[in-house]
Amino acid sequence: MTVETAAGATPPEPELVQLLTPEGQRVPHERYDALIADITGDDIRSMYRDLVLGRRVDGEAVALQRQGELGLWASLLGQEAAQVGSARALRAQDHVFPTYREHAVALCRGVDPVRLLALFRGVDQGSWDTDESRFHLYTIVIGAQTLHATGYAMGVQRDGAIGTGDPERDTAVIAYFGDGATSQGDVNEAFIWASVTNAPVVFFCQNNQWAISEPLERQTRVPLYRRAAGFGFPGVRVDGNDVLACLAVSREALQRARDGEGPTLVEAFTYRMGAHTTTDDPTRYRLNAELEHWKLKDPIERVKAYMVRGDLADQAFFDGVEQEAEELAVHLRAACRALPDPTPTSIFDHVYVEPTPDLVAQREAMSTYLDSFAEEVAR
Amino acid sequence: MTALNIIKAINAGLRRSMESDAKVLVMGEDVGKLGGVFRVTDGLQKDFGEDRVIDTPLAESGIIGTAVGLALRGYRPVCEIQFDGFVFPGYDQIVNQVAKMHFRSGGRLRLPIVIRIPYGGSIGAVEHHSESPEATFVHIPGLKVVTCSNPVDAYWMIQQAIALDDPVVFFEPKRRYYEKAEVDVDGEPDLPLESARVALPGTDATVAAYGPMVKTCLDAAAAAADDGRSLEVIDLRSLSPLDLRAVYDSVRRTGRLVVVHEAHRTLGVGAEVAARVTEECFYSLEAPVQRVTGYDTPYPPARVEEEYLPDLDRVLDAVDRTFAY
């Protein structure tokens, strides 16, 4: 069945905010130039470093999964600019509610990537300090975290932490999710809640074109950013492979939230260059030519080209970042393999704040059972 | 002492919790101006404001999901689900998020959320308004599940549930909402939240029930007494964790147990009680544990619900069977 658009008209190409072309050329933008006017060469170099380290963490994790060190990994390959650009727009007091693919955001929030590996290794289910990083735990049920973010933002409202004009107090919340998640009821409920409560939350959708094997056309007949209009708040589509544009658009949206002006939907138009996860095989459902097309829009290469073009960095800088990435990779490999398995009886530790009598009994039973084998071995 | 029905007792308990802790919020559909469809939250919005008594959009997953975020920010949301059957749109958030957050965070995060659900039948309602889904929550580790049967327990248990740092699903027996009792609102609760209570001491057989069926069983015990048979009635109150110490003590004396609930029979709370009593009191049992429950059908049309629901006669019939064995 072919789906016809209304009256056979071709929808106009939606406006996509872009500040850096795939060739690394800085293009002026009437609205968004001002939002990154303060960005210095140091900032660009620092963002480049985050992009490279983010990709390297990801690459190492894929390799560790292939070596049997991780049970699974969800690669962010291709989405580095969307993640770094939005994360660099955050202030210390802002809160992040991620999916399970926001590894570069985690890095920008100071979460040790070893903690991410621990989750995918099966050592724990999220062990980073969410108070310190303000980067909440990964959420695997698609879209569920958008409601958590919205509720959190309602709490921020009640604490009077928006619209005071104090840049260290006013707080925004950002919810990450993907194109597939926009079909979930929870995401639509989050949009409604945020809209009617005017909650200080930014909905940051990384539209990477694919929900495992299903292309965007299976989720929507309108550009995703336009959905916001129906809920009564602004939506904007940004080149998700352009770190500067993602920074600018996110800064604007987050500041609206902090100022008490309510939610924004940002659609970062990007591409999942890898598989959905390490268990997925994208050759079954998409053409290699599509990937090749997107490789030309690589989010890291364009920053590098921009830096070279503008004389913002020399070879020694690039070599230095490469060296740092290499050292990080060595550290991750060793630290991942050194992660201790949890003890079996630790599963009873935090079901409730205080253990219930039933769980105490079950723990003892498990202990006794496991110890019986130890005695056999000893004999 | 104040004469309160269960609605007013929960209302008074909510009010006391909100007075003593500014982080306690009430949220749900129609809980504000209307005071909830059963008026359990009547007057709270007027006194505590719209920021603390939140009329939410009509979406149960949204109620629970935003409560998660509020709890992470340090609030203590009390969510009202309007009717039992309407909890299922929020079931994913309850089971996958609320129940697991403390565990998956290695104990770092706590979600002190109370989810209030009016439940049970015998009110002549249409579909989805008379169900007893408690076992589907008891089965989920990380949730506590409690239910009150009378105004005194309602008043104290709602406050104890709010004070707890674990998430609690709080089932309210809607057909008993208008039962009255004298409540000492300035006193102290005589029991911890997670404990059963002997509602009526007896010597010949044990009847364990909870929520709306406690009154049914007390009525049955009164009828049995007329026939010279003494039933001990135990109000389980806490379904997760399940406190069966009083049941074990009783069964060791009586040797006979009948478990009663409105919910379907298969894999219901009665099945768990029967299994555990068999494990703990095997040599004391004079007869197999009997279950008196709703049948394993969807909740039926109201005109036949009284035949579907356990009543006094079905309880006594089951007691007779334990003696005939």
TrEMBL record, chain A:
Residue span, Dehydrogenase E1 component domain: 52-327
Cofactor: thiamine diphosphate
InterPro entries on file: Alpha-ketoacid_DH_E1_comp, DH_E1, PdhA/BkdA, THDP-binding
Gene3D superfamilies (UniProt xref): 3.40.50.970
Any single biological process term in GO: branched-chain amino acid catabolic process
Bilayer-crossing regions: none
Keywords: Oxidoreductase, Pyruvate, Thiamine pyrophosphate
Top-level taxon: Bacteria
UniProt GO MF annotations: magnesium ion binding; oxidoreductase activity, acting on the aldehyde or oxo group of donors, disulfide as acceptor
Name of protein: Pyruvate dehydrogenase (Acetyl-transferring) E1 component subunit alpha
UniProtKB/TrEMBL annotation, chain B:
Transmembrane segments: none
SUPFAM superfamilies: Thiamin diphosphate-binding fold (THDP-binding) (SSF52518), TK C-terminal domain-like (SSF52922)
Keyword Oxidoreductase among record annotations: yes
Pfam families, per the entry: Transket_pyr (PF02779), Transketolase_C (PF02780)
GO MF entry, a single one: oxidoreductase activity
Keyword Oxidoreductase: yes
Cofactor: thiamine diphosphate
Xref: InterPro entries: THDP-binding, Transketo_C/PFOR_II, Transketolase-like_Pyr-bd, Transketolase_C
Keywords of this entry: Oxidoreductase, Thiamine pyrophosphate
Highest taxon, organism lineage: Bacteria
Endpoints of the signal sequence: none
Residues of the Transketolase-like pyrimidine-binding domain: 4-179
Name this protein carries in UniProt: Alpha-ketoacid dehydrogenase subunit beta
Species of origin: Jiangella rhizosphaerae
